[in-house]
Specification:
By secondary structure, this protein is an alpha/beta fold. It is built from ten helices and 13 strands. Helices cover about 30% and strands about 25% of the residues.
Length: about 300
């Protein structure tokens, strides 16, 4: 019987890159790992925007089930896809160093270096409610087109102008990880188009009582990244928003060790109203910043925008 640590992952190119990265990182510490590919609901239903699918955890629940059934030892997730409330018996084992969480603009036209540079009426692709709402707030004159598929497919659709697409918004980390950084026309300021909570980070999920897996992953934990995503996910949890809700969060580190500040945002789906709030983060209790920013957002009407 193999003694290798079994890593569960989706089969998309980006998911496999991430799982292979974890496997290699473990290998450098003398720990052998092997991959187990698991198809998820989000992979099977690629024709509808994610917010129209039923339930939560579209890219995670089948992998979590394999973890609970002991078919795998570690679930490798894009952390932004992982619901803030984990199933009983499961826990985050590690958050490795996070990539840049910023969204980026991909465009088939040269010189499209910002959202402002796009001509009125052009078609821009995304299937994220968060991105859709923020685009509508900033550029109500653009036509938003649902855009699903893996990262290379979405980039290719834009570059080929399929469905009349002139541009799309994607997470920059995914493009960089797949060697597609050359397709990035502009990296958007995180306070202009705010990322999803946990964007750019990996979440390595384990069984809560699996000491072996926890010990194996301990060396992959990056404390600053873990604190930042804890604050962001705490904000999402406090607002009772799912992974597809139009809730954004961004933890900004100040220079010269001056601490971090958490920004949160809720935008009406039609783009008519946008609420942003922020608070300093105490590194000893990052989740408290999420609760504080959620309170500020609710005080300015966020619950109404989220249909509460």
């Amino acid at each position: 019987m193999s003694s290798a640590l079994k890593l569960g992952t989706r089969g998309s190119e980006l998911a496999l890159w991430q799982a292979e990265w974890v496997k290699a990182a473990l290998g450098r510490k003398g720990i052998t790992a092997e991959l187990e590919i698991i198809k998820t609901q989000g992979d099977a239903d690629i024709d509808r925007p994610l917010h129209l699918l039923d339930g939560k955890g579209f890219f995670t629940k089948e992998i979590e089930q394999a973890l609970m059934d002991c078919r795998i030892d570690v679930a490798v997730h894009s952390l932004k896809d992982l619901p803030t409330s984990l199933p009983d018996g499961l826990a985050l084992g590690a958050v490795p160093e996070r990539a840049d969480p910023a969204d980026v603009l991909v465009s088939k036209e040269p010189g499209m270096t910002s959202l402002a540079a796009l001509a009125a009426g052009v078609r821009i692709g995304t299937s994220s409610l968060r991105r859709t709402a923020q685009i509508r707030y900033l550029r109500a004159d653009l036509e938003i087109v649902p855009l699903r598929g893996n990262v290379p497919t979405r980039v290719r659709k834009v570059q080929e102008g399929r469905d009349g697409l002139a541009a799309a918004l994607l997470a920059g980390a995914g493009l960089e990880r797949l060697g597609l950084g050359g397709a990035i026309a502009a990296r958007l300021d995180a306070l202009e188009v705010m990322p999803a909570p946990g964007q750019g980070a990996l979440g390595l999920e384990v069984r809560a009582d699996d000491r072996k897996a926890k010990k194996a992953l301990a060396g992959l934990e990056d404390a600053p990244s873990a604190r930042a995503v804890t604050a962001e996910r705490s904000l999402l949890a406090a607002l009772e928003g799912g992974c597809q809700a139009p809730v954004a969060a961004y933890c900004e580190s100040r220079e010269q060790g001056a601490g971090s500040r958490l920004f949160g945002r809720v935008t009406a789906q039609d783009g008519s109203v946008q609420i942003t709030a922020s608070a300093d983060m105490d590194e000893r209790d990052p989740a408290a910043a999420g609760a504080r920013v959620a309170d500020l957002l609710r005080a300015h009407g966020a619950s109404r925008l989220l249909g509460r």
